[in-house]
Amino acid sequence: MREPAPVTRPVALTVAGSDSGGGAGVQADLQTFAAHDVHGTSAITAATAQHTRGVESTHVLPTDEVAAQVDAVTDDFAVAAAKTGMLATADVVETVHDRLAALDAPVVVDPVMVATSGDRLLDRTAERAYHDLLADATLATPNVDEAAVLADRDVDTVADARDAALAIRDTGVDAVLVTGGHLNDSQDAQETDRSVTDSNIVTDVLVTDDDVHTFEHPRIRDAATHGSGCTLSAAITAHLARDAAENADDGVLVDAVDAATDLLERAVRYHHDVGNGAGSVQHLVDARTSADLTRVARDVSRVVARLENATAPVAALLPEVGTNVVGAPPHADRVADTVAVDGRLATTHSGVRATGGVRPGASSHVARFLLAAREHHPELRYAVNVRYDDRVADALDALDWPVSEYDRRDEPADAPGTMDWGADQAYRGDDDRPVAVVDRGAHGKEPMTKLATETPDALVDRLTTLADRLTTLADRR
């Protein structure tokens, strides 16, 4: 019989409504807590019948039942941070305030008033009751519409968001984060107010006692944002719970917001395509990426093994600098999210051999090329670099593959990097997706061909097909 080995994790509490669709509310909060390695507890304030298209009905629980749930949790668990979501009525707001005011832990108030679908989730008479709850809170996280209600003013620009946050902070809350997903991004507004959010950028504004902080992230086109507010506030709460447990310094709130807004960008971009509506944010996006790295590492290792044992003359394709094989999980956004050969594939007396094992973040050039290609074609998951010369050019012509190319001499001075810029040039057109991308090189830079595919098997097939055609053409000469 084995001995138990319990794990200690910080505890967070969510007091919110239940979303039968699983994308928002308590369901979103608990998944987000789990993604941050925080034990989630809950007190349900209301049961909603909702899905990705909207809210069908709402049943608010009696206040004594809400109070009983909070009491049960706080009586038994050392709650390190708490958050509120949908509170629905003035009585529930007052009950929750009464219970959480006695909690010696940070409290994040997400003043849920309107669902992403536009359905109202808060009784209008409860809006005034929020002021007492906010007065004892660590952070409030209203969206633009909610900030406008709480501050009693229009919020259309980044400057408006800052002013609204300052007004809400004056109610007593320690800090206010106004999320900017709905800030005005019209051209007319940009011409009249330079502080307005750019149409391609989402700007969140955090006002603390000491300063005003802004957090900018790329806007996701046609984003599925159901549950985004819940996920953001839950991620901040999870960070506060962890940092409270670790006795973090006073800068923890800004760090928590920074990390949470970064997470939310990925959760929205790689959303769940579920239901007949816009879908739902993916609360576990980072956890899934980490889990997928193991599988992708096996895929890359399998590609390497097949190339080392290939009957096709793959060695003829290896450039002087060597070849790398890169794989990316579906949610990869950064080089650290990719897997590659630690070193390169090189030609030896024994044939093609990898000079190292496979690990995350092992490639820079090919990984950045793949990530940039995925901005245009997210289905691309695997990439490799091989040589480019006249013989390879002839083989590509003979295969009649769609081929694109870029010239390093055209790279602008402000480009983010050659691999990023080159992939953008190669994949941004409306023509057929290229099978091969040619980099003609430059002084001190070897010409190169890059192949990117959806599966590891397709990558091997493309490489062996190109190698076979190269050999066939050489035999004819």
Automatic annotation (TrEMBL):
It is an enzyme of class 2 (transferase). One of its GO terms (molecular function) is phosphomethylpyrimidine kinase activity. SUPFAM superfamilies: AraD/HMP-PK domain-like, Ribokinase-like. Residues 300-463 form the Thiamine-phosphate synthase ThiN domain. Keywords: ATP-binding, Kinase, Nucleotide-binding, Transferase. GO terms for biological process: thiamine biosynthetic process. PANTHER family: HYDROXYMETHYLPYRIMIDINE_PHOSPHOMETHYLPYRIMIDINE KINASE THI20-RELATED, PHOSPHOMETHYLPYRIMIDINE KINASE. This is Bifunctional hydroxymethylpyrimidine kinase/phosphomethylpyrimidine kinase. It comes from Halorubellus litoreus.
